[in-house]
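job 3f2a | input accepted
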Amino acid sequence: MQATGRYAADGQFLVAPRRLDGRDGAWVVTPLVVESTGATLAVVRGFVPESAVVPAPPGGPVTVTASLAPGESPSEAPAEGQWPGAAQVRGAIDLAVLVNEWQGDLYNAFGFAVEEQAGGGADLPASGLERVPPPVIGETGLSWRNAAYALQWWIFAAFAAYMWFRMVRDDHQLDLQREESHV
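job 3f2a | predicted structure (183 res):
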């Protein structure tokens, strides 16, 4: 996804604890007010190691190329004060909380920034942030667990059809026996 807008620095927060390449740290999440819609997109701009200074987002218009992900489940926030310059530290990107805190509409997803460009098209340096690689989408191959579950339901359906057939056949035979005994 690509969106052009302005970062709202006052809404920036950290999500911790997170790990990147075996190091402890936090994700830097900044709201991007998208120019074309006016809605806000939470953008994971990068990763900062523990106790590192959190850089402010760039001012002015930016174009962000991001990989979208669904919101995370609520989580307890860690102890604050581990990162100098961080306004707020949270345990997750909980969109249900953000919709009540950020003004206006909110996208029902957040983005992992792959690239940021200034209004003129120049690449912005990460300024102390390391890019967080977007989650890898799983393979779409055969899942044996799901196949076994599907097979279980097919067996159950076949058993139910067989039992229905047996009940109808037994009832029909009972009717025939009653007719023969009355004759």
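job 3f2a | The mean pLDDT is 84.
job 3f2a | closed
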